[in-house]
């Protein structure tokens, strides 16, 4: 078990003033020609990426390697989770041409593995599931050797939208629980832990050959024991891949960082996850849901074969 306990925040309190960011979380601001090329491509095709919308600390590294996580269904979310930098409000209707443009960007980039996510669209009857499915089909049509990972919302626990996505046969079905159950009502009040577990469990039942994946942020006020309990819950619903990263406060109006976990604690989470039976655990201060996703897919394909 990780050796340094996390302070529990009382239910009616907010975390104390965030501690100073440690050196291991400082990211060099190197911008390569590939970074600028990818940025121009996204603008020309009128596409969004979660890399930009969520202020991902790895954007320069990933874009420099010509990898990105596409954000579909617009850039306005119907929820307002307190850790997230994506705008919330009233989104525009889905763009029927967006799936084709995403597939074209994948082709131009020559991607071997594409990651697709979205804002949460509680305003749509199917939560955007048909758009996810069409993006998968369009990518396969233009890029038959490219594997596809989708990072979906919880669809408010409705299994019919999930079925629509699974019938399009993504290679990886990802849904992040984000935090521990105790913090859900305050950090992501419109989400439900039970919805998340149900989505992951039923994805595996609907398509047993599709890898399932989930992720956690730490530093929001959880305890180590709570993190390990969530990891056990995820294994109980047969999640294959787990990502764990440090929460970073996007702006002062967002939920504060309660503490920063040192790299050795992330390594302990990785080891515990492997002992629990996860096929892959990506755990580190700067890890995000799609960090090294292509490498994960390539390695796991070899194992599955």
CATH superfamily, please? Aldolase class I
How far apart are the termini? 33 Å
Q: What is the fold-level CATH name, i.e. the topology?
A: TIM Barrel
Shape: globular
CATH class: Alpha Beta
The SSE order reads: HEHHEEEHEHEHEHHEHEHEH
Main-sheet strand order equals 1-2-5-6-7-8-9-10
Rg, rounded, reads 18 Å
Tally of separate domains? 1
* Relative strand content: 5-15%
- Count of individual helical segments: 11
Low-confidence stretches: 1-13
Total beta strands: 10
Using brief descriptors, characterize the structure shown:
305 residues; TIM Barrel; single chain; alpha/beta; eight-stranded mixed β-sheet; 10 strands; disordered N terminus
Descriptive notes:
There is one protein chain. With 305 residues, the protein is an alpha/beta fold. The protein has eleven helices and ten strands. It has helices spanning 33-44, 50-53, 59-64, 98-109, 129-142, 159-167, 184-187, 193-206, 224-236, 263-276, 293-304; strands spanning 48-49, 69-72, 76-77, 87-88, 113-118, 147-151, 172-174, 211-218, 241-246, 280-283. Helix 5 links the parallel strand 5 and strand 6 (147-151). It starts with 32 loop residues before the first helix and ends with a helix.
């Amino acid at each position: 078990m990780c050796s340094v306990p996390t302070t529990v925040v009382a239910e009616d309190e907010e975390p104390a003033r965030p501690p100073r960011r440690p050196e291991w979380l400082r990211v060099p601001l190197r911008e390569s020609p590939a970074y600028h090329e990818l940025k121009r491509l996204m603008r020309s095709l009128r596409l969004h990426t979660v890399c930009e919308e969520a202020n991902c600390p790895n954007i320069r590294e990933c874009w420099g390697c010509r990898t990105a996580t596409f954000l579909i269904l617009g850039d306005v979310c119907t929820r307002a989770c307190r850790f997230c930098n994506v705008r919330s409000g009233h989104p525009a209707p889905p763009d029927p041409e967006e799936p084709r443009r995403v597939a074209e960007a994948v082709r131009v980039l020559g991607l071997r593995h594409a990651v697709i996510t979205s804002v949460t669209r509680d305003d749509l009857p199917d939560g955007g599931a048909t758009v996810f499915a069409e993006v998968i089909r369009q990518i396969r049509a233009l890029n038959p050797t490219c594997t596809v990972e989708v990072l979906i919302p919880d669809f408010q626990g409705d299994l019919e939208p999930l079925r629509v996505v699974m019938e399009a046969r993504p290679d990886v079905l990802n849904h992040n629980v984000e935090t521990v159950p105790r913090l859900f009502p305050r950090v992501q009040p419109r989400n439900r832990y039970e919805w998340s577990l149900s989505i992951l469990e039923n994805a595996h039942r609907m398509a047993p050959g599709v890898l399932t994946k989930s992720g956690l942020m730490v530093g929001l006020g959880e305890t180590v024991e709570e993190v390990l309990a969530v990891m056990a819950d995820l294994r109980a619903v047969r999640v294959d891949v787990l990502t764990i990263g440090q929460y970073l406060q996007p702006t002062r109006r967002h939920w504060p960082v309660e503490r920063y976990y040192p790299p050795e604690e992330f390594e302990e989470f990785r080891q515990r996850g492997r002992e629990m039976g996860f096929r892959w655990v990506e755990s580190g201060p700067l890890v995000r849901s799609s960090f090294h996703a292509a490498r994960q897919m390539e390695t796991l394909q070899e194992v599955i074969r």
